[in-house]
């Protein structure tokens, strides 16, 4: 059981890293921060398509990672 949890933790860790790296950047420095705030106020900053899917996958993998990390820690 402990071996399976360790393997699952490794797989989820790699998947989380890949999903985070695949996401596009939300700003381009200072000009992006100023423009991004204006777009957010106007309602244009909605995640669509692949960005929305990657965002949801990041949340799911992060939750799984935390649960598995805690359970592996309790096994030791």
How does the major sheet shape up?
none
Percent strand equals under 5%
For the secondary structure, the number of strands is 0
What would you report as the Rg, rounded to the nearest angstrom?
17 Å
- Output the helix-strand order: HHH
Task: Give a description of the structure.
The protein has 76 residues and is an all-alpha fold. The protein has 3 helices and no strands. α1 packs antiparallel against α3. The model has no long low-confidence stretch (mean pLDDT 82).
Summarize it.
The chain is mainly α. The protein is built from three helices and no strands.
Provide key terms for this protein.
76 residues, protein-transporting ATPase activity, 3 helices, mainly alpha
SSE topology:
Layout lengths: L1 H21 L6 H14 L7 H26 L1
Helix pairs in contact: 1-3
